[in-house]
Amino acid sequence: DPPIIVVLSALHGITNNLIDAGETAALGETRYRRLVQEIKERHLEVLEKLVPENQELHHEVKSHLGDVEELCYGVFWVKELSLRTRDLIISYGERISSRIISEYFKVSGISAKWLDARDCILTNDSFSNAQVEFEKTYVQISQKIKEIKAKVIVVPGFVGSTQEGVTTTLG
């Protein structure tokens, strides 16, 4: 049987919070720090409820949340939020939520594997409105699915990457 593919969005409200954090930082407002802290707290709360014992995942999620904080800090200092940087910041919502749910499936006894959509969804470089390059993407997806032996494949939605591996969000 072919695997079931579960495509996940960010936690409710997180995409908007990530956008707000980036835009607030670009305005030079320190309020972005509070927004980033709320994003961190929300993810860590869900992580603690669903996968409390997996310290490796806790470390990974905290690292990703640290990346969000550092990206917003850089935006704050240069007072500029390019579409490319915005895409990278936003992508963390889907990437983190899908990692948590993938691990939750595993601890619940479901054979699951996380697949980073950026490794198989190839797009152009129209940041914040990227278009999928369907022929190349189909080849990548087919290849990746053959490599995975799990019954469920969990994938972050809304994200892809350019040929050069730069994170994009789909339009």
Features of this protein?
171 residues, mainly alpha, 5 helices, flat
User: Total strand count, please?
Assistant: 5
Instruction: Name the helicity range.
Output: 55-70%
Rg, Å, rounded = 16 Å
What ranges have pLDDT less than 50 throughout 5 or more consecutive residues? none
| Structural class designation | mainly alpha
**Helix tally?**
5
The topology string of helices and strands comes to: EHHHHEHEEE
The global form is flat
Distance between the termini: 32 Å
> Strand sequence of the main sheet, in spatial order?
1-3-2
What composes the largest sheet?
A: 3 strands, parallel
Strand fraction: 5-15%
Look at the structure and give the mean pLDDT.
97
Q: What does this protein structure show overall?
A:
The chain has 171 residues and is mainly alpha-helical. Helices cover 56% and strands 11% of the residues. The chain contains five helices and five strands; from the N terminus they run E-H-H-H-H-E-H-E-E-E. Helix 1 runs parallel beside helix 3, helix 2 (32-50) runs antiparallel to helix 3 (55-78) and helix 3 (55-78) packs antiparallel against helix 4 (83-107). The protein is flat and about 50 Å long.
Per-chain topology:
Elements: E1 4-8, H1 14-26, H2 32-50, H3 55-78, H4 83-107, E2 112-114, H5 134-147, E3 152-156, E4 159-161, E5 167-169
Parallel strand pairs: 1-3, 2-3
Antiparallel strand pairs: 4-5
Helix pairs in contact: 1-2, 1-3, 1-4, 2-3, 2-4, 3-4
Q: What would a concise description of this structure say?
A:
Helix content is 56%, strand content 11%. It has 171 residues and is mostly helical.
